[in-house]
């Protein structure tokens, strides 16, 4: 269906890695390598999004964007480039592109661009028990792909503050435990700002050593260091006109903190190995899961930088402090995964509801989301019970209703054979099927598969080695 179709204009090897997760999420993908083929596909299949190379032999994205005036309901276009430049990004944005990305294409990034309003894809506000009235004391948050769900007063306060400052250029420091949704709030701020049609660039400050992080942030000139064979633009230049998110800012080394402070104060950067300053217009957002005031007292974070970042503080509450929001979010994720896996809607048993409210949720919303995906896969026809959260994998046993239902189910009505996979069988065989299914659903990512199954990566690896010895080709 048109609203579930994407078009990629690129070499197959550069985009096919995202086709599998797209299919699992219910989307179709088209591929073109020339303008005529792309235009024909757009007119015939009416894709909801286009991802395109800037240029290929006999093709240019500029020519594609020029066709927008000739085609009704022309879809948003994202240009993605191997090397990229601020000038090229600005040119394509002025020509009408929705966004400009650097390779590689990431499924995590693509899915944030996908429309939420596929048939039966997301619960309605009524299903969530929420309201969209602006004056309501209990707010669900925004609709669409930057949806923030919550009715608890603590969330209503922080969401209200976010809405109030979204259109400003003020720096915002978003703090909270891991998994509370800090990046989602950052994207919410960008989406509701006057910069929503400009780039949103995120970088994890804990992921790189200081010398590489400096190059990633500010770019470098050719010959600046061994391996710098070309000029490279940094994240600040690529985000110019838009928003940059500095994730885990407290992990940045003190020397680099001083350089960041100058960028915030002067609005200009120095590329590594460069001799000229470069002006940038960027709205800066930062996140931390630490008590940053204590980090300042310990001398591990500059006090002046803290004050400069903390113009607007957004402190996100832990999930365990959000009361009935736990159930609201749990229902949201269950409906989401039921749709993704082609399953009928599932409800919670009274026992599971009590467990959800009593659990401490050390991993916050991220942990809740993972547990709900696991429960959807294990609950069969439902209802969902706490055992389906698989907190003790070694104690897992399929219940009789589940196996009986699977054994007698009409194969034609079984979505993707999910229920049939759990017909009565030896526990070891069922375990093998669960592991294979988890790898399939995570596109072979063992870390995510182990997380979904509630076991360690080491345990998963050992199981897979055993299966290989049995002759199973994985």
Mean pLDDT: 80
In helices, the fraction of residues equals 40-55%
Q: Tell me the major beta sheet.
A: 5 strands, parallel
Strand order of the largest sheet: 2-1-3-6-7
In what range is the share of β-strand residues? 5-15%
First-to-last CA distance: 33 Å
The overall strand count is: 14
Radius of gyration: 24 Å
Which stretches are poorly predicted, pLDDT < 50 over at least 5 residues? 117-144, 400-424
Shape: globular
Number of helical segments?
Answer: 20
Helix and strand composition category? alpha/beta
Brief overview:
The chain has 474 residues and is of the alpha/beta class. It is built from 20 helices and 14 strands.
SSE diagram, text form:
Layout: E1 5-9, H1 19-24, E2 28-32, H2 35-45, E3 49-52, E4 55-56, E5 59-60, H3 61-66, E6 77-81, H4 86-95, E7 99-102, H5 107-113, H6 125-128, H7 153-165, E8 172-175, H8 182-191, E9 200-204, H9 210-218, H10 235-238, E10 243-247, H11 254-266, E11 268-270, E12 277-279, E13 283-288, H12 292-297, H13 303-309, E14 312-315, H14 325-340, H15 350-358, H16 364-378, H17 400-408, H18 427-441, H19 446-453, H20 457-469
Parallel strand pairs: 1-2, 1-3, 3-6, 6-7, 8-13, 8-14, 9-10, 10-13
Antiparallel strand pairs: 4-5, 11-12
Helix pairs in contact: 14-16, 18-19, 19-20
């Amino acid at each position: 269906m048109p609203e579930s179709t994407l078009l990629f204009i690129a070499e197959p090897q550069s985009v096919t890695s995202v086709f599998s997760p797209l299919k699992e999420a219910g989307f179709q993908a088209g591929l073109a390598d020339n303008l005529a083929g792309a235009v024909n596909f757009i007119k015939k299949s009416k894709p909801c999004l286009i991802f395109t190379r800037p240029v290929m032999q006999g093709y240019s994205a500029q020519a594609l964007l020029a066709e927008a005036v000739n085609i009704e309901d022309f879809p948003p276009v994202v240009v993605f480039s191997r090397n990229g430049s601020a000038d090229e990004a600005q040119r394509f944005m002025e020509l009408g592109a929705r966004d400009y990305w650097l390779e590689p294409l990431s499924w995590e990034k693509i899915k944030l661009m996908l429309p939420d309003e596929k048939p039966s894809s997301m619960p309605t506000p009524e299903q969530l028990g929420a309201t969209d009235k602006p004056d309501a004391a209990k707010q669900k948050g925004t609709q669409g792909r930057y949806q923030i769900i919550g009715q608890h007063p603590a969330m209503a306060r922080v969401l209200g503050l976010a809405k109030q400052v979204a259109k400003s250029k003020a720096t915002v420091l978003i703090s909270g435990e891991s998994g509370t949704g800090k990046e989602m709030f950052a994207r919410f701020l960008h989406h509701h700002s006057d910069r929503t049609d400009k780039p949103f660039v995120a970088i994890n400050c804990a992921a790189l050593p200081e010398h590489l992080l400096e190059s990633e942030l500010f770019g470098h000139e050719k010959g600046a260091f061994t391996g710098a064979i070309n000029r490279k633009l940094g994240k600040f230049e690529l985000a110019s006109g838009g928003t940059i998110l500095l994730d885990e800012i407290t992990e940045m080394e003190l020397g680099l903190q001083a350089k960041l402070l100058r960028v915030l104060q002067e609005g200009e950067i120095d590329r590594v190995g460069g001799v000229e300053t470069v002006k940038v217009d960027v709205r800066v957002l930062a996140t931390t899961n630490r008590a940053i005031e204590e980090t300042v007292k310990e001398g591990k974070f500059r006090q002046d930088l803290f004050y400069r970042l903390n113009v607007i503080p957004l402190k996100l509450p832990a999930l365990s402090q959000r009361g009935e929001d736990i159930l609201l979010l749990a229902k949201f994720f269950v409906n989401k995964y039921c749709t993704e896996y082609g399953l009928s809607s599932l409800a919670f048993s009274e026992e599971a509801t009590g467990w959800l409210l009593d659990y401490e949720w050390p991993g916050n919303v991220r942990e809740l989301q993972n547990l709900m995906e696991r429960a959807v896969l294990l609950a069969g026809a439902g209802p969902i019970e706490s055992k389906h959260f698989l907190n003790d994998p070694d104690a897992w046993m399929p219940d009789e209703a589940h196996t009986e239902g699977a054994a007698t189910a009409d194969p034609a009505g079984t979505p993707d054979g999910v229920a049939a996979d759990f017909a009565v069988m030896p526990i070891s065989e069922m375990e093998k099927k669960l592991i294979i299914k988890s790898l399939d659903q995570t596109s072979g990512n063992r870390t995510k598969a182990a997380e979904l199954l509630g076991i360690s990566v080491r345990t998963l690896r050992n199981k897979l080695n055993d299966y290989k010895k049995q002759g199973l080709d994985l």
